[in-house]
Amino acid sequence: MSEIPQIIKDVGFDFSWDEKKVWVLDLPVTEMNIGELEWHFDIPFLSEYGKIYNLKPRDVMDHPDQHQEEYDRTMAADMQYPIEIMENKGCWLILDGLHRLMKAHVNGQQTVQVRIVPRDVIPRIISDS
């Protein structure tokens, strides 16, 4: 397995979570300006060629022909589900929904639907593995 890049350690969470545990939380859906989340596009949160965290979302969106698999995954994202976010280190960080955010951006949306996950639920969403 590849080493986690320092930028991911710097901006990421200090815990591992289970997306399925996040999905079942009873949280309201709200609308957010996409600009508050676009900083994700310049961090290598995506993985390609068997390596982890080696691909920036912006590279996928700017050069879909060079990253066809991730671009196809982005464009297939189901927009009926909100993006799951949590405040972390002074900004909104995505728990689930990066491909949906990318698709919204590609489609020219100005806002996205989000669910704000409070930090006090971290014990309930921790990954078992």
| Count of spatially separate domains | 1
Average pLDDT for all residues: 95
Poorly predicted regions: none
| Overall form | globular
| Strand/helix succession | HHEEEHHEEHEH
Residue fraction in strands: 15-25%
Instruction: Briefly note the CATH topology name.
Output: Conserved hypothetical protein from pyrococcus furiosus pfu- 392566-001, ParB domain
Helix percent reads 25-40%
Strand adjacency order, main sheet: 1-6-4-5
The helix/strand class is alpha+beta
**Count of extended strands:** 6
Structural features, described:
- This protein has 129 residues and is an alpha+beta fold.
- It has a single domain, classed as Conserved hypothetical protein from pyrococcus furiosus pfu- 392566-001, ParB domain.
- Helix content is 29%, strand content 23%.
- The chain contains 6 helices and 6 strands, in the order ααβββααββαβα.
- The chain has helices at 6-11, 19-23, 57-62, 68-75, 98-106, 122-125; strands at residues 30-33, 46-48, 51-55, 83-88, 91-96, 111-116.
- The strands form 2 sheets. It has a 4-stranded mixed beta sheet.
- β4 (83-88) and β5 form a beta hairpin.
- The longest helix has 9 residues, at 98-106.
- The radius of gyration is 14 Å and the shape is globular.
